[in-house]
Structures are given as C-alpha cells and as structure tokens.
Amino acid sequence: MNTTPVITCKNIEKKYKNFTLNVENLEFPKGFATALIGENGAGKTTLLEMIAGLRLEHKGDITYFNKYSEDDRENNLDIKNKIGYTGTGNYFLPHWNLEQTRMAQELLFDGFDVRKYDSILENLALSMNGKKDRNKKVSELSDGNRTKLMLAGVLSRDTELLLMDEPASPLDPLMRDKLCNMIQDYIASSDGQRSVIFSTHNISDMENVTDYAVIVENGSVVEQGFVEELKEKYTYVKGDIEDLKAAEGYLYDVTSSKYGFEGLCLSENMDKLAGLNLMCETPTLMQLSVGIMRANTRLGKAGK
Amino acid sequence: MKISQNLGIPIYQQIAEQFRSDILEGKFAQGEYLPSIRGLAKDLKISVITTMKAYEQLESEGLVTAVQGKGYYVNAQDGEMLIEQHRRKVEDALLEAIKYARIAGMQDKELTETLQTLLQLEED
Fold first, then answer.
1. Which of A233, A262, B49, B96 is the most exposed place for a label (fewest CB within 10 A)?
2. Domain identity same for A179 and A50
3. Dihedral sign, CA of A153, A156, A159, A164?
4. Looking at residue A302, what is its pLDDT?
C-alpha cells in the first residue's frame, strides 16, 4: 500500500546496562493509528520517548513528517506544536488544581483550545460541577483520572501526531471505549493528515482502532504491517492432537492440550499442512500478537 | 449497516458486500461518492485500514473508482457487468446447493429435478 510515513526511524540504537534498543528501519504511516505491541520491557516506552524527544541521546535518525530531522523538532516550535505526547507518569504538578492545569497548558501551547479542554473534561466525567471541580488537585485524582486529564490536554491542542504511552491501561472499560472513539474522531477529523501512535497491552480493546501494528520484542521490531495484511500473512489453525507432530514444524507458535492444538502458521506454509484435518481461521490481532511475541521470546531463550 | 464482530466473515468483506448490493440495487447514483474512509471507520467503530480494504475490493470489482484525495465514486453500472455479478451469485448459490446435496446423499438427477420443480413453482 502506498503511504507516506509520519515518523521514520533509521538505525536507532540505544544501549542500556541489560538492554539494547535496536531499530533498523521502522516507518509509521501517516493518517493511521499505529499500535506498538510487546512484552513489558520490550522497548515500547523507550521508543515512544525517543520519538517524543524525551530521550535525546541515541544513534540513528528519526525523521518527522517525512522531512524534519530531530534538530528541526528541537528548534522549530511549529513542529513541536504539531506533536502531542501522553506518558504513563503524570506531567502535571501534583499540587495544581484542574484550573491551573488549564492555565498552564494555555500558556505553553499555541492553539490550545480551552473550550475543547473543558468539554472533554466534562465528557470524561472529570468535571461536572463547573467551577467547584476545578479546585480539585491533581494529587487527589485516581490514576485513571490523571490519564484522562492528560488525554484532554493533548486532544485540545492542534496537533498532527499523537504519541500515547499505554493510554488504555489505567482506564475502565467504558473509558477505553471512549478513548477509542476519541482516537477515531481525531483521525477522521482531518482526512489523512493526523496520525496516532500508541503502545498498548489491551490489544483486544484497541483492535478496532488499530490500522498498523508494530510488534517489539527484546528491543527489536519483530513484525510490522497493516493489520489487514498481517491477517492474511498468518493463519490461525486448530487441529487434533494426533496431527500435532506433523504440523508442529510449520507452526510459528503452538499450544496444545490433550484434546488438540492450536497455533499460528505463516499462510504461505499452509499447503505443507495439506492433508491434515485442520480448522483454519483468520487470526485476531490478539492471536497474532501473542503468537508472534511468544515465538520470539522462545527464540531468545533458545539462543542463550 | 450492520457489522458483526463474531460472524467469522472478515469485517472488510461484510462492508464490501453491503455496498456491493446497495450499488447493484441502484441505491447509489452513478458518480455518487461513497462515505469518506475515515468517516465511515469512525461511524462503524472499525479501523481505517479495514474500511480501506473494503473499498479497494469494490474498486477491484470495478464497482467504484478511486480519485486521489477525493474518495471513491460509484461507476456507471452497465448491463453486462450487472449480469456478470448476478451470474456469479447464482454460481455461488448453486455450489452451496451442491455441497448440501452431497451431505444429504442426493443423486445428481434428484438435485436437477429439485431445481426444475422449484423453477416450475416460481413460474406458477
């Protein structure tokens, strides 16, 4: 598919004591929502923070909006303004009240839409009594509500790229649904100009807003692609236990019980399984991710 | 438009199918644009890429044409194409019928007779 990248990562390398992030070539498509999927400690947050400019020291290049370098991002306010970021921590000072978060962001960001901020806060049930709630301190909010506050802030700005680290994790199911709607509204509001990159463990909750998936394991990208293409690349197979031996070699990832087995298979290998009595399904994003993650974790272990 | 998440049919095919029948039934005028990809994705609460794939499928079938930056408009449905589309549906339905006939152990002759009887009933 012909797409323009919103973010291009080339030969990124960052070494830590026990961990190296190594991304040779990664392009996030413009106009789509991309999910970063991977185990805890796989490198999702590090990567997002690098793109957001929160971790500056690393090898390799990141290109923004297909033309700007990292230096441009640092020095050109217009570019900085186009990028919004929410992390898992809390970037508002704990003793601020809601009114102060509003004022601070209005000062900090060009194009911060105060009215939109208020209406999102209301929509997210963070403020209902107008002025009275605005005296509520950030430190009094729950984790979920702090995330909502950051989401409201970032969505009230006039951005073209949203970077969100685990936005769904602290949210309840109702709010996750709302988050999905907000991401879709954001993407739909510009006809292809706005992009979202988010990391998530809540793959099933987010599947319906995920266009492109990047699966990260052990500091490297092990699979990436448009979800619909990945669903064709892999097939989910289920079979009887007698066939396990014959099929095992071709399966990317397999789990078995005394009744049968199931696993992920590269669709191009399906003809090698011909003759076995198998049930074939299009994998869900969850099955895909878990299969690929598990296959790569195991490879890592085998190598040791 | 109704989309089922657990029908076992890929969502993009469900969308394509509904637009296909709408177009063939003339619910879209020639030259009329389909809903915007991102707008439809938002309304159906599905991903943009799924909607895109549905539209690309319709394009490959010649039902719609993509215009860079504008979207997909409905092609003139010439008679031949309509007939071809419906022929395909007939074949699919008959293949389905054959499958069930095999399961039921019907002889080929019995199957064609059933078809003839049904045709007769239809005419009456």
1. B96
2. yes
3. positive
4. 42
- A92-102 tens-digit pLDDT: 888 999 889 99
B15 touches chain A (CB under 8 A): no
Rounded to 5 degrees, φ, ψ at A128 are: -125, -25
Q: Which H or E run contains A298? A: helix A285-303
Token digits of residue A253 = 């990832």
CB A154 within 8 A of CB A127: no
Question: What's the pLDDT at A111?
Answer: 85
Contact predicate A252/A265, CB 8 Å: yes
Amino acid symbol at B119:
L
Looking at the structure, tell me whether residues B22 and B63 fall in a common domain.
yes
Strands of A5-15's sheet in order across: A20-29, A5-15, A59-64
Same domain? For A253 and A149 the reply is no
Instruction: Establish if A6 touches chain B: CB-CB under 8 angstroms.
Output: no
Instruction: Please report, for the domain that includes residue B50, its CATH number.
Output: 1.10.10.10
- What is the C-alpha separation between B106 and B111, in angstroms, rounded? 7
pLDDT of B46-104, one tens digit each? Answer: 999 999 999 999 999 888 999 988 899 998 877 677 777 788 889 999 999 999 999 99
Provide the residue count of chain B: 124
Contact B12 A211 (CB under 8 A): no
The DSSP symbol for A207 reads G
Domain of residue A118 covers: 5-225
Do A205 and A238 have their domain in common?
Answer: no
Q: Same domain, yes or no, for A98 and A215?
A: yes
Closest alpha carbon within chain A to B47 = A209
